[in-house]
Amino acid sequence: MSGRDPDGEEPTGRGQANLVALATALVVLTAVLGSALAVADGALASADRDPAERRAAVAAGERLVAADAPVTRRANVLDAGTVGTLDATRLARLVPPLDGTAFRVRLGDETLAERGDPTGGATVRRLVLVSTATERTVDVAADRPVSLPRRTARVRLDFSGTNVTTVRANGRVVLHRPGGLRGAETVAVSRLETARLRFGDGATGTVGVTYYPERTRKATLAVTVDA
C-alpha cells in the first residue's frame, strides 16, 4: 500500500510526534540546567560562608582556652567556678568574629552560651581540662617543717599569735619580716611539686595553713557558628 493519504500528501503524525518529543526534551533539559545552576549557586554561597564560620568558631575556641582568658586557670584548663558564668553577650565581647552570627558553646553535655538558632554552620571541637579547686586548712606548729598533702598553686598563712619572721617554700624565701610576720599572707608556690614549708629558726606558735588542691577532668569544648 502507498504511504500517501487520499489527497496524495505525506502523513504528518510521525513528524508531530517527533516535535512533541523534542519540545519535551528541551523542557526537561531546561529544568535540569536550572536545578544544576541553583545547586551550584548554593554550593558557592556555602563555600563562601563556611570558611568565615569556621574561622569564627576556631577564634572563639582559642580565646576561651587562652592562658589569659577570664574563664581559665591556665592555658587549656577551664575554671569550673567561672566558666559557668559565661553567657552569649560576654562571649561576643571576648570574640569579635562572633558579632552578627548565631552561635552555641557547649562543654560536654552542658550549653554554656547560645545566641540565635545555629542549626547549621561550622562546629569546632577541642579537648580541654576542667579544674575544680577545694579549700583546706590545717594548723601546723611553727617550729617544724611541714609538707602539704596535696599540690596547690598558692598557700594562705595566718600568723595570728605566732612568732615567725621568715617563711621558706621548697627552700626559697617567700616571706620575711625582721619584726615578725603579722595577720595573713598569701604566697604563690609551684603546682608542679609538693609544697614544703619551713618557718625559720626560733619560730613559735601555730600557723594556720590554707591550701587549694586542684582536681581536673577531661571534657570536650564545642563551638558552633552559623552565619
Protein architecture, described:
InterPro entries: DUF7263. Keywords: Membrane, Transmembrane, Transmembrane helix. The chain crosses the membrane at residues 20-45. With 227 residues, the chain is an alpha+beta fold. It folds into two domains: 13-127 and 216-227, no CATH class; 135-211, Sandwich (Jelly Rolls). It has three helices and 14 strands. It has helices at residues 13-64, 80-83, 88-94; strands at 72-74, 77-79, 102-107, 110-115, 122-133, 136-141, 146-147, 154-158, 166-169, 172-176, 184-188, 196-198, 206-211, 214-226. A six-stranded mixed β-sheet has the order 1-2-5-14-3-4. Strands 6-13-8-11 form a four-stranded antiparallel β-sheet, with no helix packed on it. Strand 9 (166-169) and strand 10 form a beta hairpin. The longest helix is centred in the N-terminal third of the chain and has 52 residues, at 13-64. The termini are far apart. 20% of the residues are buried. Residues 1-11 and 27-48 have low confidence and may be disordered.
